[in-house]
Design brief:
By secondary structure, the protein is of the alpha+beta class. The protein has one domain: NADH Oxidase. About 30% of the residues lie in helices and about 20% in strands. The chain has 7 helices and 6 strands. The strands form 2 sheets. The chain has a 4-stranded antiparallel β-sheet, with helices on both faces. Strands 3-4 form a two-stranded antiparallel ribbon. α2 crosses α5. Bound molecules: flavin mononucleotide (FMN). Flavin mononucleotide (FMN) binds next to β5.
Length: about 200
């Protein structure tokens, strides 16, 4: 049974309808759609407007596809090989500030890349595509395979595809194939002082 997501406060349905399925059709994604996702990411906020996010992608069945799938651990390969595109998200760890001539460390490089990925995910949802972030992959191998120079952090892989029937998945994954729930706001929002138990 699929558990519906219900927001406790009125919000745009895009926030609760986005979720990360594993059953994907593997159908081709067109460049127009893909570029719209990167366009959404482009407008994310970042410190000093540094825009430290970098996206390196591979479309299913392209020549780079086997190498991208090969970065994932086996559990993730089992479902993500049916994605339409795999994107490796990186962040540049330094930035030349507007009043400086030399690059200095950018404290928020991962935070800013996270904002960009969230924008991409909601645009995908808006366009009828699903996204699924993947942390289970080999970051060292990713740097080598993608020819990433020093000064970049490999953040996450994002699988994008059209949702398929859950019957496509193994019995174990079928059981987990439903939107999950969230902590109540009181567990992560406090006024005035920290005041959380964990
Ligand atoms: C940084 C990051 C790493 C993740 N790694 C994996 C992963 O390796 N495998 C996987 O199946 N899901 C992975 N996920 C998906 C999360 O489990 C999922 O986003 C979370 O349970 C919330 O569910 P939802 O996205 O459906 O709302 C990852 C998500 C993020 C943001």
């Amino acid at each position: 049974m699929t558990h519906a997501r219900t927001a406790d406060h009125e919000i745009s349905p895009i926030f609760t309808s986005r979720w990360s399925p594993r059953a994907l059709t593997g159908e081709a994604i067109d460049d127009r759609t893909l570029h719209a996702l990167f366009e959404a990411a482009r407008w994310a906020p970042s410190a000093n407007n540094s825009q430290p996010w970098r996206f390196v992608y591979s479309k299913k069945d392209s020549s780079s596809w086997p190498a991208f799938v090969g970065l994932l651990n086996e559990r993730n390969q089992a479902w993500a090989r049916k994605a339409s595109v795999l994107i490796v998200l990186l962040s540049k760890t330094t930035h030349v500030r507007p009043d400086a001539s030399e690059a200095t460390p950018l404290y928020s490089h991962s935070l800013d890349a996270g904002a960009a990925w969230a924008s991409l995910a909601f645009q995908a949802e808006h366009s009828g595509w699903r996204t699924h972030a993947i942390g289970g992959f080999d970051r060292v191998q990713a740097k080598a395979v993608l020819n990433v120079p020093d000064g970049y952090r490999v953040e996450v892989v994002v699988a994008i595809g059209k949702q398929a029937d859950r019957a496509e998945l193994s019995a174990e994954l079928q059981e987990r194939e439903q939107p999950n729930q969230r902590k109540p706001i009181a567990q992560f929002v406090a006024e005035g002082r920290f005041g959380f138990e964990d």
